[in-house]
Write the structure tokens for this entry.
Amino acid sequence: QKEVEQNSGPLSVPEGAIASLNCTYSDRVSQSFFWYRQYSGKSPELIMSIYSNGDKEDGRFTAQLNKASQYVSLLIRDSQPSDSATYLCAVIPSDYKLSFGAGTTVTVRA
Amino acid sequence: EAGVTQFPSHSVIEKGQTVTLRCDPISGHDNLYWYRRVMGKEIKFLLHFVKESKQDESGMPNNRFLAERTGGTYSTLKVQPAELEDSGVYFCASSQDPTSGYTDTQYFGPGTRLTVL
């Protein structure tokens, strides 16, 4: 079983729609959860971090965490063409090192 | 503030050769990490420095890989001799505070794309 699994994608949404990205993790003691955005050929860029159950909103992005279900999601509201990228879910299970999912490629159609 | 920088951006070498990758973390960041993404796979942890000390090198694939961080500033990752399966993108990341634990944000460099022929 992979440590972090994401919905495989690719995900195509029209401009202005909501993009929904899902991620599950295997280590129940995981403490920290992150969403990184990576444009092609660029470095992963942190867009959201979440540590407690519930929702966390930052602009058009909302991260949701449910530790009981070992599930974390990212919603992108009012999707823009500039949101087209690969989104990486990452988890810190019990120390400092990040465990990444394979990523979900999102394409926002103008 | 300059971000994490890596050099070279691309490297193409033949099997059996040696390659050295360099990472310059954000100034003042004590934590430095190396990760690798091979084709079609997830980004995987290789090792973690706190200042000049190796904190965790559990992800290093084998003894052909050697990482150093002299003086606690930049780091190098040497692959000697390189094999075909070493091809991939090598990312470096840094974070500021080793005591902040799970909430310490890791900032990534653009990566070095290594191709071993």
Remarks:
- The two ends of chain B are 37 Å apart (CA to CA).
- The first strand of chain B starts at residue 5 and ends at 7.
- Chain B touches chain A at residues 3-4, 31, 33, 35, 41-45, 48, 55-56, 59, 91, 93, 95, 98, 101-111 (CB under 8 Å).
- The mean pLDDT of chain B is 92.
